[in-house]
Specification:
CATH architecture of the largest domain in chain A: 3-Layer(aba) Sandwich
Pfam families (chain A): GerE (PF00196)
GO molecular function (chain A): DNA binding
Strand order of the largest sheet of chain A: 2-1-3-4-5
Number of strands of chain B: 0
Largest interface: A-B, 13 and 17 residues
Order of helices and strands of chain A: EHEHEHEEHHHHHHH
Keywords (chain A): DNA-binding, Transcription, Transcription regulation
Order of helices and strands of chain B: HHHHHHHHHH
Number of domains of chain A: 2
InterPro entries (chain A): Sig_transdc_resp-reg_C-effctor (IPR016032), Tscrpt_reg_LuxR_C (IPR000792), WH-like_DNA-bd_sf (IPR036388)
Helix content of chain A: 40-55%
Structural class of chain B: mainly alpha
Oligomer: heterodimer
Number of helices of chain A: 10
Shape of chain A: elongated
Shape of chain B: globular
Protein name (chain A): HTH luxR-type domain-containing protein
Number of helices of chain B: 10
Distance between the termini of chain A: 48 Å
Largest sheet of chain B: none
Structural class of chain A: alpha/beta
Largest sheet of chain A: 5 strands, parallel
CATH class of the largest domain in chain A: Alpha Beta
Strand content of chain A: 5-15%
Strand content of chain B: under 5%
CATH superfamily of the largest domain in chain A: Response regulator
Helix content of chain B: over 70%
Number of domains of chain B: 2
């Protein structure tokens, strides 16, 4: 790994002391030299994300997500921090979960270590995207979502605070990455990948 | 590529390119040709051989451009053919595709059956689009085309027709003639790239084959409308205006 001047900051978010302790121990095992921050409520995490821009990695235990609203909480994390640098710990990956990284409570020690290693040492998704022509960037996903929901280019530009030309460029890139040209085709894609919900598509 | 002529043997044409099978049936021509030539088969069935050959050749070779032969047949044979093609899509191709999608939906596992349901919905939207597209052509465009030809042959032209040529010529339709293949291409892409693997590969393969064929056929159909019908209609519009001294 390249030497970096600034120390990395990792947030460990869980209600349970034992989970946080376990994660810290394992980070030590794989030799992560990072400033560690612990939070034990979702509100505290929210506060952290809003006020501390130095957060590099988030290790997020499912128990901290508010019950019934897990998806919304994740959505919130995604929008304010991005999910490429988030690893989720939980019982099972919910069908609509958009996290790339996931550790199950039932994983063995070796599996957990492997997954953490992958998480910290794999190139970040947004750095990889230039090469990977099939993955949509976060911004492209936002645009795709708005297109699938039936908004016009002008409306999308207003919503995302970008120019119409930028919207058009995003749309071109989306089409060339996915090979799908029509709005209804894009809507099907968005539904298949849980970018929008069926109720919203109406 | 060598074009077929009126002296080509009908059986050899089909042996060379089986994809022409649906074309001949649209003309009401049935198998069992023996050694008959195109001309003979057409004479038996009362089919305009010049037009039949244009269709066969352009379907067989996408670089074939039937420009020299535009004058060799009347538009009514062409309108007949295009109408038959519409019927073929709606009565034969579309139900086939729906059948395979239904089968796949039944056989797929839970999560995937939801995905297939999305595709089904997408295709029914597409069906609705093409039905409307065809209806519009059959109700407004084709009768107009026939009227033009009648106006020339019968020496009798209504005021409305002249008005229509002036204000709503075929060019308007040409500009708005939207492509019917794009959505089909999307459907193929969704299946090939994004539908999680299925356990009913056979049905999926049939479905894709049907989609590829329909797409090819519709492309060809659109090409006929744009490269043959429209130029011909423009020519007729011009002639009618000249003939009636407008």
């Amino acid at each position: 790994m390249e030497f970096e001047e600034r120390k990395l900051h990792t947030v460990i978010a869980s209600e349970q002391y034992l989970v946080r302790l376990g994660v810290k121990t394992l980070l030590n095992v794989i030799g992560i030299e990072s400033e560690l921050h612990e939070v034990d409520t979702f509100d505290e995490l929210e506060y952290f994300m809003q006020n501390d821009e130095n957060m590099d990695y988030l290790i997020l235990s499912e128990d901290i997500l508010q019950k019934q609203r897990k998806i919304d909480c994740l959505e919130y994390v995604k929008n304010s921090f991005g999910l490429s640098s988030t690893i989720l710990i939980g019982k099972q990956q919910f069908p609509t979960c958009v996290c790339d990284h996931f550790i199950s409570y039932s994983c063995s020690r070796k599996e957990v270590v492997d997954k953490l290693q992958q998480f910290f040492y794999a190139p970040k998704a947004n750095e990889q995207q230039e090469e990977d022509s099939l993955t949509l960037s976060d911004r492209e996903r936002d645009v795709l979502k708005a297109v699938a929901l039936g908004f016009s280019n002008k409306e999308i530009a207003d919503q995302l605070f970008i120019s119409i030309n930028t919207v058009i460029t995003h749309r071109k890139n989306i089409t060339s990455k996915l090979g799908i040209k029509t709005i209804s085709g894009l809507t099907v894609y968005a539904l298949m990948h849980h970018i929008i919900k069926a109720e919203e598509a109406m | 590529m060598v074009s077929f002529t009126k002296n080509s043997k009908m059986a050899e044409i089909i042996l060379k390119n089986y994809q022409l099978l649906p074309i001949i049936s649209r003309f009401g021509i049935k198998l069992g040709f023996g050694n008959k030539t195109v001309e003979e088969v057409c004479a038996n069935k009362n089919v305009n051989a010049a037009f039949f050959l244009e269709i066969l050749n352009s379907y067989h070779n996408s670089n074939y451009f039937p420009d020299n032969h535009l004058g060799d047949f009347n538009v009514d044979v062409m309108v007949d053919y295009l109408t038959n093609t519409h019927t073929y899509y709606l009565k034969s191709k579309v139900p086939h595709i729906e059948l395979f999608i239904d089968k796949m939906e039944r056989e797929a596992q839970e999560e995937n059956s939801r995905n297939i349901n999305l595709l089904k919905h997408f295709f029914s939207e597409y069906k609705f689009d093409i039905e409307n597209h065809f209806k519009e052509e059959e109700k407004h465009i084709f009768p107009y085309v026939i009227d033009l030809e009648k106006a020339l042959s019968s020496n009798n032209c209504t005021k409305e027709l002249i008005e229509k040529i002036k204000h709503e010529p075929i060019e308007v339709y040409e500009r708005n003639h939207d492509s019917l293949e794009i959505k089909l291409a999307d459907l193929k892409n969704l299946i090939i790239r994004f539908l999680p693997p299925l356990n009913c590969e056979d049905d999926c393969e049939h479905l894709l084959t049907e989609l590829f064929q329909l797409e090819y056929d519709i492309e060809e159909h659109t090409r006929m409308e744009e490269k043959v019908l429209i130029p011909k209609v423009k020519m007729l519009e011009q002639k009618v205006l000249e003939y009636y001294g407008v």
